[in-house]
Backbone:
């Protein structure tokens, strides 16, 4: 019986780095001198003390799996180096050892996406939750890290990621769904944002809120904002994983979902911080959308770049 292999296996292309590496190896076999910048390999031999340390580790039986975080001795040495040479005070338990740059960037972005989802869920004040203002610090840290990571990801995946065959089957429907959610949220924000709506939005008394004419609009808006702000980071994480494992064009989903999550977060922050007593509707809308539109435009441009 012939083995059945998934058709998508034929669409998987080797890494761009490895393609260049194979060409470089062929040049070496032909007698040419090659510097292997494509895989980050230096043009000198491994220092002797590192070779001896590796041989000693083998002779001592250190040939088994380690912790996913790295050897504790290595993490302690890194922490000591950071303190001694970089004046960065950290504990060995705060150090993570990875096998390469892409793994480290992926781990940081995945962690920050989880933080963003956590903030959207726990930071937004439900009428039955207690607001915790300490969440502001976490949210801004996540946005800054993810913004830098977005630029890094676009550069890294476009240069080294694989792109093969036709557009992935589910990519465009997924993009359409995320874009539709973002547009609905922005439309509701434009339509609803007014002093009365803002004043009632953070109302902590459920009975008082339910006695108003805006009760159902506020309830619907809260649910969309909170659930969207929580789900979008996980959609972005799925796009990041698919881009890393299959086709780099899935990075478009990561970019668009991260943009939608950032828009939700920015709206939440303004909902909680605006002084509605000194603003009217025609002051609130330009103030808010002057901040939302550049983020949305940048996200759409990044999505287009990722698809190319």
Residues:
């Amino acid at each position: 019986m012939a083995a059945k292999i998934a058709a998508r296996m034929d669409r998987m292309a080797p890494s761009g780095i490895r393609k260049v590496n194979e060409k470089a190896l062929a040049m070496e076999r032909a007698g040419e001198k090659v510097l292997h910048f494509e895989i980050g390999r230096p043009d000198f031999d491994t220092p002797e003390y590192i070779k001896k340390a590796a041989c000693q580790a083998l002779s001592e039986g250190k040939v088994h799996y380690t912790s996913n975080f790295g050897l504790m001795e290595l993490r302690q040495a890194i922490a000591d180096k950071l303190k001694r040479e970089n004046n960065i005070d950290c504990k060995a338990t705060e150090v993570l050892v990875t096998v390469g740059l892409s793994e480290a960037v992926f781990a940081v972005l995945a962690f920050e996406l989880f933080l963003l989802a956590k903030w959207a869920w726990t930071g937004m004040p439900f009428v039955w939750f207690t607001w915790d203002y300490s969440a502001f610090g976490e949210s801004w840290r996540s946005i800054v890290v993810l913004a830098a990571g977005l630029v890094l990801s676009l550069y890294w995946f476009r240069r080294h990621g694989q792109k093969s065959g036709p557009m992935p089957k589910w990519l465009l429907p997924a993009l359409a769904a995320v874009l539709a959610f973002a547009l609905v949220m922005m439309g509701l924000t434009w339509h609803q944002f007014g002093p009365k709506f803002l004043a009632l939005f953070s109302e902590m008394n459920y009975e008082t809120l339910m006695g108003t004419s805006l009760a159902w609009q506020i309830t619907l808006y809260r649910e969309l904002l909170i659930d969207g702000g929580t789900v979008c980071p996980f959609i972005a994480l799925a796009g990041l994983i698919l881009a890393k494992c299959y086709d780099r064009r899935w990075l478009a989903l990561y970019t668009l979902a991260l943009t939608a999550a950032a828009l939700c977060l920015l709206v939440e922050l303004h909902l909680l911080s605006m002084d509605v007593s000194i603003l009217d509707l025609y002051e609130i809308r330009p103030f808010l959308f002057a901040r939302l539109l550049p983020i949305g435009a940048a996200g759409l441009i990044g999505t287009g770049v990722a698809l190319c």
